[in-house]
Amino acid sequence: MQNTLIMKFGGTSVGSADALKNCTQIIRDAKKDWNRVVVVTSAMSGVTNLLLDSAASASHGKVDSLSETEATLREKHFAVAAALIKDESLREQTKAEIDTLIQSLVDLCKAIAVLGEASPRAMDAVVSLGERMSVRLLEAVVNDAGIKAQAIESTEFIVTNANYQNAHPDFKVTTEKTRGILNPLMDAGIVPITTGFIGATPEGAITTLGRGGSDYSAAIIGAVLPADNVWIWTDVDGVMTADPRIVKEAQTLPEISYNEIAELAYYGAKVLHPKTIRPVLDAGIGLRICNTFNPSHPGTRLIASIKSNGKVNGKVIKAVTAIRKQRLVTIEGRGMLGVPGVAARAFGAVASTGTSVPLITQASSEQSICFAVPSELAPTVLSALEKTFSNEIADDDIDRAWATDDVSIITVVGAGMRHTPGVSGRVFTKLGNHDVNVLAIAQGSSEVSISFVVEAADTDNAVKALHELIVS
Ligand code: ASP
Ligand code: MG
Fold first, then answer.
1. What domains are there in the chain, each with its CATH number?
2. Ligand 2 mean position to 215 CA, how many Å?
3. Cβ pair 29, 2 in contact under 8 A
4. pTM above 0.85, yes or no
């Protein structure tokens, strides 16, 4: 018997009656092998977006679609209740609790419409309702199946700062509270089922950890208890060598290191929220990504570091990923040569717009700085740069700041690159052979990945071509 396991179920894993049935069986099976099991749930798939849309419409004074939203939410949750909760009083009670939450969505949206604005705090109150509904549903379904479980909102023990929509946990207080609340339940043989994604300030205001944050919740709970393992249940067989929608031959990676997955998560592979990795790695906890719809598949295990030369079946490159809808911003001018602080001021200006920069390159001539930003933020970034450098632009030291059309960042990941000369040569030869033009290049100093920028239209072609280096 192993000790403590955290299992997080993503939106599709709790997205339908069939899915919840699988979750229940997975929990039942886990209880056979583990003394203590904690379940973390996302909102049912689609619900978080629906909630955000309702709040956004309300902030423009539009509440006419609210009744439709209410109906959709009822239908989604109640269909599962009807299919899987046999005990009538439990079913009716669960539906009533969910209904109360739906009513509070209506009240919140009406208040937002009156104010004509949704503060980040109000947004979090709205968007937290998805997990608050799903946790009750899952609790009832699991109990009805004869497994002792209790729903607890993570607002009770994940204590965060007041950075609404992207809150940061206070690990010290969270550790105490999480142990204090979850341990007694587990000691009594009960499976705590808790909300992913949400926490609360010390004053009790609801916060969220950022989109996709349920993975992070599972990692936080795992780290503070501590657990031995965190399993992330999703709708694919683990981490793949590429997006299977682009590359038919994409395969599941049986193992991947924390470094490698960090690069993949950062560069657009939606396998795991990037913040998940730190807490589990620091606490030495095993992480596994597995498929609710194919539970006997071993999925992907995270390992501390890649042994020997890091090659899997003799292959150095393990995975290739793409982030779309980026633009390359360039600041250029001969007068930049040797002027200290241009880069610092440039990135200061970018930071002031709240934009994070996934890729930077600077030519050694120092006559330009070039970096990527998400397309929708490019205009804001450009005006911030023009403002910051208005004097230099007036003096012609800087000619201009400009942005390309949409581009994609392609990243190849593999820890073995560090020990293997010539990887970038092979990558760029491959791209050249497929007529993909490379606009900019950056290599992470960890040498676990190489990223480069291609035109939007070349994205799929580049990913497919590079995948040949993995499978061939
Ligand atoms: N429900 C939240 C979201 O969709 C959190 C999560 O599912 O991880 O962003
Ligand atoms: Mg997710």
1. 2-235 (3.40.1160.10), 307-472 (3.30.2130.10)
2. 6
3. no
4. yes
